[in-house]
């Protein structure tokens, strides 16, 4: 087989729209990666984008002229907006500013990129990049919702330090991550037609009306797994404990607080699910008697009586019509030994074990490294972003699940 045919985006026509934001420089790397994977890339820039990066950069990368003007004298001999709109298999706008999102949502056509966006029948994806307050503003959130309802894919943004000195959601996804989204959207989803339920985040076990026992789970790993499953074409139900994360899209979101709530939510929606993935850090114990009133300080010591919670994962795996079951094991030592014990004791098909004894992986942080075990095999996924780990894990799950059904 030729080298070209091995590339994931061979023969794919990608129109890259670049708008005016500081993240425009990342679009050049994204463009390079698309080409490296065999895509035929054409670039359309807004005039604001040209304030941040030169068209010549994209011309050199793609070997094609860069399109910018709505009324272009050269267009008679080259592609005009209708031809570009017809040509593209996928239009990705990266970075997508608040302004372009608002105009896209309202159907404006006052520049070439917007005109193409209205005229194209191809898939459209946007990678928002802006100040975190602008991103969180109700107007922007509403525009994103409108676009999602119309089928536009919204990739990101990331949360973190921003060029303006603030911290929060609004950073454009890294080029490597955007490439992953493109590869996924251009493939027929491997999990098309399958239903997956995923638990994520911590649970909170109430002591009294104001206090609870919980753990350090942020939900990042579970939400990343949910997004990866959605990207692979699955219909995802995400059962989540209390977290401060944007939910992946499109998803059926079921919220809960305690281990008991999570158990009820899972059990009442598990019927018909093909795969169950337990990423949540579910409390193993709950308070036996939750106080109705706030407990007052009195004695120097206080005893709390704890009782075991129900094991959600094991209960799902014990169902007569059990879905393909994937567990997570959070361990501080003897990773493989404890993980394989859980694999057998809970009657699982796969277990993903991660270390939770340091600061580089596991709870709260953005990265993880996991060892995946199943009856006859295992695979190590080295330290990388939870999004990338999730994509690799979903690939392994898909492979095992499909081979199990055949
Ligand atoms: O949320 P993050 O900050 O991104 O952190 C990610 C993570 C470390 C929480 C995640 O990667 C992880 O390891 N999740 C599982 C945590 C855990 O509870 O592990 P465990 O070894 O105690 O439980 C084993 C499995 O049983 C898990 O799949 C768990 O969801 C499930 N379980 C446990 C107890 C219970 N009552 N019900 C369950 O379903």
In short:
This protein has 406 residues and is an alpha/beta fold. It is 34% helix and 24% strand. The model has no long low-confidence stretch (mean pLDDT 93).
Properties at a glance:
single chain, alpha/beta, Rossmann fold, 14 helices, 24% strand, globular, binds ligand PMT
Low-pLDDT segments: none
Beta percentage is 15-25%
CATH superfamily of the largest domain: CoaB-like
Q: Rg, please? A: 24 Å
Number of spatially distinct domains: 2
Please give the share of residues in helix. Answer: 25-40%
Q: Specify the CATH architecture of the largest domain.
A: 3-Layer(aba) Sandwich
Task: Outline the biggest β-sheet.
Answer: 8 strands, mixed
CATH class of the largest domain: Alpha Beta
CATH topology call of the largest domain: Rossmann fold
**First-last Cα distance:** 27 Å
What does this structure look like?
Helix 10 (220-231) packs across helix 14 (386-405). The chain is of the alpha/beta class and 406 residues long. The strands form five sheets. The chain has an eight-stranded mixed beta sheet, sandwiched between helices. The chain has a five-stranded parallel beta sheet with strand order 2-1-3-4-5, with helices on both faces. Strands 6-7 form a two-stranded antiparallel ribbon. The chain is built from 14 helices and 19 strands. The radius of gyration is 24 Å and the shape is globular. The chain folds into two domains: 11-185, 3-Layer(aba) Sandwich (Rossmann fold), CATH 3.40.50.1950; 195-405, Rossmann fold. The chain binds ligand PMT.
């Amino acid at each position: 087989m030729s080298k070209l045919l091995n590339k994931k985006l061979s023969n794919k026509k990608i129109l890259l729209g670049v708008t005016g934001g500081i993240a425009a420089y990342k679009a050049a790397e994204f463009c390079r990666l698309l080409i490296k994977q065999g895509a035929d890339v054409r670039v359309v820039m807004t005039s604001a984008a040209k304030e941040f990066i030169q068209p010549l950069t994209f011309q050199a990368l793609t070997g094609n002229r860069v399109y910018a003007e709505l009324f272009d004298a050269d267009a008679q001999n080259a592609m005009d907006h209708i031809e570009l709109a017809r040509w593209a298999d996928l239009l990705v706008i990266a970075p997508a500013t608040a302004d372009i999102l608002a105009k896209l949502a309202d159907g404006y056509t006052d520049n070439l990129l917007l005109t193409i966006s209205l005229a194209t029948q191809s898939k459209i994806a946007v990678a928002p990049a802006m100040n975190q307050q602008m991103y969180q503003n109700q107007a922007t959130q509403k525009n994103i919702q409108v676009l999602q309802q119309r089928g536009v894919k919204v990739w990101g943004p990331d949360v973190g330090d921003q060029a303006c000195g603030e911290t929060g959601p609004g950073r454009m996804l890294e080029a490597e991550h955007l490439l992953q989204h493109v590869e996924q959207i251009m493939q027929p989803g491997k999990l098309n037609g399958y239903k997956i339920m995923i638990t994520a985040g911590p649970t909170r076990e109430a002591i009294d009306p104001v206090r609870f026992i919980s753990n350090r789970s942020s939900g990042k790993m579970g939400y990343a797994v949910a997004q990866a499953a959605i990207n692979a074409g699955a219909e995802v139900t995400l059962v989540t404990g209390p977290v401060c994360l944007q939910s992946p899209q499109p998803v059926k979101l079921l919220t809960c607080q305690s281990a008991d709530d999570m158990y009820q939510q899972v059990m009442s929606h598990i019927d018909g699910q093909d795969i169950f993935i337990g990423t949540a850090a579910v409390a193993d114990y709950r308070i036996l008697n939750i106080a109705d009133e706030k407990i007052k300080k009195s004695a120097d010591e206080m005893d709390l009586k704890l009782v075991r919670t129900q094991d959600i994962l094991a209960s799902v795996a014990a169902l007569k019509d059990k879905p393909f079951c994937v567990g997570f094991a959070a361990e501080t030592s003897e990773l493989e030994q404890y993980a394989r014990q859980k694999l057998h004791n809970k009657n699982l098909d796969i277990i993903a074990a991660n270390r939770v004894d340091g600061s580089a992986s596991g709870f709260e942080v953005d990265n993880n490294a996991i060892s995946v075990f199943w009856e006859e095999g295992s695979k190590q996924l080295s330290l990388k972003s939870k999004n990338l780990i999730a994509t690799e894990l979903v690939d392994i799950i898909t492979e095992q699940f499909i081979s199990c059904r055949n």
